Amino acid sequence: MLRGMDFAPSETLQPLLDKIQRFVTEEALPLEPTFVGGSFRAMLPELNRLRRRVKELGLWGPQIPKEHGGLGLTLLEHGQVSELLGRTPIGHYLFNCQAPDAGNMEILISHGTPEQKKQFLEPLARGEIRSCFSMTEPELPGSNPTLMATTARLDGDHYVIDGHKWFTSAADGAAFAIVMAVTNPDAAPHLRASQIIVPTNTPGFELVRNISVMGHAGDDYATHAELRYTNVRVPVTNRLGHEGSGFLIAQERLGPGRIHHCMRWIGICERAFDLMCQRAASRELQPGKPLGSKQIVQAWVAESRAEIDAARLMVLRAAWTIDTRGLYEAREQVSLIKFFVAGVLDRVVDRAIQVHGALGVTDDTPLAWFYRQERAARIYDGPDEVHKMVVAKRILKKYGVTA
Ligand SMILES: Cc1cc2nc3c(=O)[nH]c(=O)nc-3n(C[C@H](O)[C@H](O)[C@H](O)COP(=O)(O)OP(=O)(O)OC[C@H]3O[C@@H](n4cnc5c(N)ncnc54)[C@H](O)[C@@H]3O)c2cc1C
User: 378: Cβ–Cβ under 8 A, 6 or more apart, which residues?
Assistant: First the structure.
């Protein structure tokens, strides 16, 4: 542990956490059964009503700086909020801190021009529009995005974008995409691409399909799209940062983004853990013999508790390190939490489903939704194997292993 490290919520944060916990329990959870089996678009009126409530309660945009209408929390503070919101699949959306919008807001704040901020950031921060982030391509490995086929060719004061992307989450209904495209094909691999803002009503932007993931294509925000960009013309002024800075900006986005995901996953773990314990206490195999009296279930309870607690401490430490020492100092910790917490999530939700028996795979509890949606946690934002390799190489280098 490092000097000055203190995860206790401050006197101002604690009342906020209490308020959020109450809102999630009393107002968000009742909406969940409709969400888990149903259509996101059909639920928008109800979701928007709750978004207005979040604003009324003064809880809107916990991670958004105050000058852009949010609460301006530090990463450590937002991590603690994110855990509470993660207990329900709609939590982050209600507070306008959902991926990928949260990450897009962050890069617009740090790299957007005043005009880009006015046109794209401000309505996004107010929750009037949504956005998406379009980097991964079906034909090339997302684990090595420097291999990218999408190009943005200069033509006067415009870029002309051509490419094929997929798993652009939340593209359905988004007002704009931030697209990674090769602008400098002759540069070094990490300096070849730029991030360019493409309004989704630009001619040539085509949503081919919402990809069916684990049997569900979803709709509106709850989707992952395949997209085609054909002769898409946007002004050069839509580029974020300088030409060739795409990967640099993507790295900046991913550090805090992984903390957000990890704390959301811990919220999911806590919810699954709670449901598992409730079921272990209430389901009787024989009169007076609840499931929780079986040693194997007790082991799952104990192992899950230990893993969730360890995961939380690791994530808070990484958030604290980013807040106080910067992303560079925290890069190893960020890789550690990305694969470790995704693994804990996978195991805890799986155990909770097992304890529920057949009920666990229905949509009568949120467990199956968590399982379907979050299996991908071990793949997106860098698959487990890549993060393990990065950390292990760095460690083993100190022992003389350089291969
Ligand atoms: C639900 C979901 C949402 C997503 N949202 C977005 C989004 O909004 N925008 C976007 O641009 N992308 C998004 N993605 C894409 C995601 O970033 C990629 O799936 C990820 O980068 C992996 O790329 P890939 O799928 O091409 O797998 P590949 O690169 O083909 O890798 C396949 C597998 O190979 C293994 N592997 C890879 N590298 C190594 C290595 N070095 N050593 C050993 N094993 C290795 C891993 O097990 C990996 O899972 C999303 C993906 C999912 C599943």
Answer: 339, 342, 343, 346, 384
The pTM is what? 0.95
Q: What CATH number has the domain bearing residue 46?
A: 1.10.540.10
* Domain assignment present for 65: yes
Please report whether residue 125 resides in a domain. Answer: no
- Asked whether the predicted pLDDT for residue 368 surpasses 80, the reply is yes
Q: How far is the CA of 13 from the centre of ligand 1 (A)?
A: 35
Regarding the beta carbon of 127 and ligand 1, being less than 6 Å apart is answered no
CA angle 100, 106, 111 (to 5 degrees): 120
Range of the domain at 384: 247-397
Cα separation, 321 vs 257, in Å, equals 14
Condensed to tens digits (0 to 9), the pLDDT of residues 117-142 reads: 999 999 999 999 999 999 999 999 99
Q: Considering 48, 73, 108, which residue would you say is the last residue of a domain?
A: 108
Question: Which atom of ligand 1 is least distant from the CA of 132?
Answer: 8
Taking residues 64-90, report their average pLDDT: 95
**Given ligand 1 and candidates 379, 388, 390, 393, which is best to mutate, with the most ligand atoms within 8 Å of its CB?**
379
In a domain, 345, yes or no: yes
Determine the atom of ligand 1 nearest the C-alpha atom of 144.
Answer: 29
